[in-house]
Structure formats: C-alpha cells, structure tokens
Please model this.
Amino acid sequence: MEAQQFGDRHTIQKLETVQKYLQAYTTALKFQPFELLYVDACAGSGSSVPKSLLEATESGQALLDGFARPVADTDEIIVGSAIRALGVSPPFHRYCLNDVKGSNVESLRGAIVKDFSHLSSRFTITKLDANEMLKELCRSQDWKKTRAVVFLDPFGLQIDYDTLTLLGKTEAVDLWYLVPVFAMYRQVSGQGQINADGGPRVDAALGTDEWRKTAVVEELSSDLFNQPQFRSKRAVDIAWFEKVAKERIGLAFGGQVLNETLPLGRNGIQEFSLMFAW
Model:
C-alpha cells in the first residue's frame, strides 16, 4: 500500500469519531432487515502516516462527546476512513468505495486484498467523479431495503449540493461530511472580489448564490478630496460559511442535521467542518 503522509496528533481522535459511529451503527442495525452499506466517495489510498505519530495526544480533549471547539489537525481523517470502516465488526454488507485518482484506487484495492480478503465479495471500488458515483448509487438502490452511511471528505469544492439533496431524498442515508469551509471563504478577497472560477463552485456546493449578497458589502468612504465613494469589502468569516453550509445540509436532509460541528485544519486555521446529517 502506498501510504500518504498527512496528519498530526489529533488525527487518531478524528478517525475514531467516525469509526466509533460506524461500530455503533452496524451493532444497532445487525438484527434489522436492511442491507447495510458503507459509502466513501473520496476514499484516498487507504493509508496515511502521521507526522507526529509518536507524540502523546493532548489530555482532556473529548472530541467524541460534544465536539470540542479547538481547531484540530485534519489530514488523516481524509485518507484513513475506508480502511477503518472495513475493520468494523459486525461488518457492513457492502462497501462502496471510490476515488477519482487511479493510483489511490489501486493502492486501496491492494490493501483490501491483502488485509481484508474475507470481505473481498463485499466491496466495490470505482474511479469516478464523486458526484457521479453518489448519484448512481442513489438511483440504483432499493432504499426501502437498504440503509447507508456515506462519508465525504473532499479536498476542495467537488461535492455539488444537488448530490446532497439526492442523498437526503433517500431517507435512508446517514451522512458524515467534511465541509471545506475555508475553500468557500477564500473565494472572496478582502476587497470584496468574488473569484470568477471559485465563486460558481461555491454556488454549486451550497446550491444557491444567495451567499453572495451577504458575503460582500459596499462601504462608503471618502477619497483624498473628501469626495464620497463606495468600495467593496468581504463582510463574512469562516464561521459564517460554516453556519450557511450547515443550514443548507439541514435543508437537504429535512432539518436532520447535528447542531454541533467538529472544526478541523492545520496550523490553527479552520479548513473543514465535520458535520453529521441523517
């Protein structure tokens, strides 16, 4: 397996946040008449190497209960989720894994064949755009007989809001979504200019362009000759994009979104917010 180098001392805690949920999920539903799916649309290579593997984890950080607010380092949760899901017992009936990068697909396939051969009949790995993969999944399943946990951890603004809407309409999906809130924020400059390429990606990720009306304001000032003039400026921060994203996810899932979020990032900067909807 080709390991990717990501992460810091909070990584194990973050991975366990999702892993413990998956464990509780399959345990709670093991006697229910549903086929249980684990879906990872941006699965990565299946392995990562923490930069500070030997460092002691911080004491007193309870990220699993209440989602503590300090910004934690995020990288490993992106690439470690699929392998951890495969280790859950009782196992899911099927694992639908995907990554757009061919080398990640091959690395992940090799890891499963090597370490999870007993699950070889239960998994599929595709090399598709994450939206394409998820939309096909929504179309192809009998959701009266199926329940799924979907994990989304894109590196940027790849996930379209209409994909989230389709997942919500199944009324059978639990969603963990690592929302790229910093990527949304950085599409607006301090001078209030919305990136011509990135702005439309925020529109697609949120399923609306209404955010533009609040994100940029016109401020009245005076020039050197005391003549009034207007200038644009950014009027929102990362927390605002987190709030809007959570509201939009809640809308897609009929209001069923956890109020608490887990802020994640590197070097003290919140890059993502881990959100849960059901």
In short: The two ends are 33 Å apart (CA to CA).
